[in-house]
Amino acid sequence: MTTKSPAPPVLTETAPVRPALTGPLRRLLVWTFPANIGMYLLWGAIPGILLPLQVAAIDEDAKAANLAVVATIGALAAMLAQPLAGAISDRTRSRFGRRGPWIVGGTLTGGLALLGLASANTLVQITIAWTITQIAYNFAQGPLAAVMPDRVPPASRGVFSAVTGTGLMLGALGGQVVATRFADDLPAGYLTFAGLALVALTLFVVFNPDQDNRATPRRPFSLRAIVDSYWFDPRRHPDLGWAFLGRLLLYLGYFIVVNYQLYILQDRVGLGEAAIDYVPVVGVASLGGTVLATVVSGPLSDRLGRRRIFVYASAAMLATALLLPWIWPTKPGMLAFALLSGLGFGVFQAVDTALITEVLPAEQDFGKDIGVVNIAATLPQVLAPAAAGAIVAAAGYAPLFPVGIALVLLGGLAVVPIKSVR
After folding, report:
1. 238 CB contacts (<8 Å, ≥6 apart)?
2. Structure confidence by residue, pLDDT tens digits, 301-324
3. Distance of CA 273 to the CA centre of its chain
4. What's the angle, vertex CA 415, arms to CA 410 and CA 417, rounded to 5?
5. What separation in angstroms does the CA of 173 have from each of 62, 170, 267, 302, 338?
6. 361-375: per-residue pLDDT in tens?
7. Is the separation of the CB atoms in 84 and 373 below 8 Å?
8. CA 386 from chain center: how many Å?
């Protein structure tokens, strides 16, 4: 008598089960929010408002070109600093773990650099102080970004990415809004944002302590390790390469316009000095779109087990947003741009960090690889001011918008070839 073998089970593709957000994981989620707000208040307030006003006060007629020089040099320093910070923190062994000492130390050093920026009164002094500021805060930001792949299970990274993205955009846009209140007292603004960052990031480390890792073997740190901290092989890790390219292009398309938002309001829309008072209005509109997008997109991407579709949607929304002030250079046009770009960039921020962490090659290099990938966020700060400054000098502000549209659409298409993430 023969027996029929049981039919093999039918396999169905399902999204991974998300671990319960309890205990240390919940505490980490809660403190991730103010930590990112504290960090990105700086990045919204200083390059968006305080630094342009300080540069313009030196030479109003050459403000666009001078800002391009200062911002480009500072962003180049940031691009070089963050991967190195990640590689060093990967190898750090201390009672407080490998990330915490650099998060607190970088934030404290950055605050001291802002004291120098607050007292600078020449273009050279501003450039030097801003460059040191960029290096110091990126030595904090790189290890902070590595905490997610260190401690968060992949199935919960959409939620964490949404919280990180919300904190990022709340900080960046809120920084612009609050910074306008310091238009007549720039030094007080610099010191205020330095203090907020120091408090937020120190509390993050205190309430989410890392394990003592002094007994963990440490890989040697050599000249080759320094060189490798700026590189990954896209042929061996193509998904990481495509994720890098997508972030680079989308950030570049967005910031080529946003970095010049104050000057666009002043000169293209024609608000002049009244532009400073309109920045908070634009910021609140963008903030509303960002909060709505991130609250929905991050948890939804975890539930669906999908990331790329959200990147496509983000690119489409950003392209549409950039179209509006190009054909409608008015206060309502800029307001519509702010709202829709907030939605688009919020969707991207809600899932991009999760997508990146899911294509990282090796656990022992999380800090280094996060730092390398974050070049895709900092390199646009190098390229955007230089490119935008050249475009504005040659043809005015209008061509910035079609260039931005093309870049964000290419950024969305860049994630199509990624195979390891749906």
Report:
1. 417, 419
2. 777 777 788 888 889 999 999 999
3. 29
4. 115
5. 26, 5, 21, 26, 10
6. 655 555 556 666 677
7. no
8. 19
Cα pseudo-dihedral 114, 182, 171, 24, rounded to 10: 70
The residue type of 365 is D
Q: What is the DSSP string of 151-197?
A: HS-GGGHHHHHHHHHHHHHHHHHHHHHHHGGGTT-HHHHHHHHHHHH
Q: Which of 399, 258, 269 is nearest to 341 (CA)?
A: 258
Q: Tell whether the model's pLDDT for residue 8 goes beyond 50.
A: no
Q: Is 221 left (phi over 0), alpha (psi -120 to 50) or beta?
A: beta
Q: Say which DSSP state 420 is in.
A: S
The residue assigned the tokens 């921020």 is 349
Please check the confidence at residue 390 and state whether its pLDDT lies above 90.
Answer: no
Q: How far is CA 92 from CA 225, 350, 351, 385, in A?
A: 14, 30, 29, 34
The count of other CB atoms within 10 Å of the CB of residue 198 is: 17
203: three-class secondary structure by DSSP: helix
Q: Greatest CA separation found in the chain?
A: 97
Token pair 């993050």 is found at 204
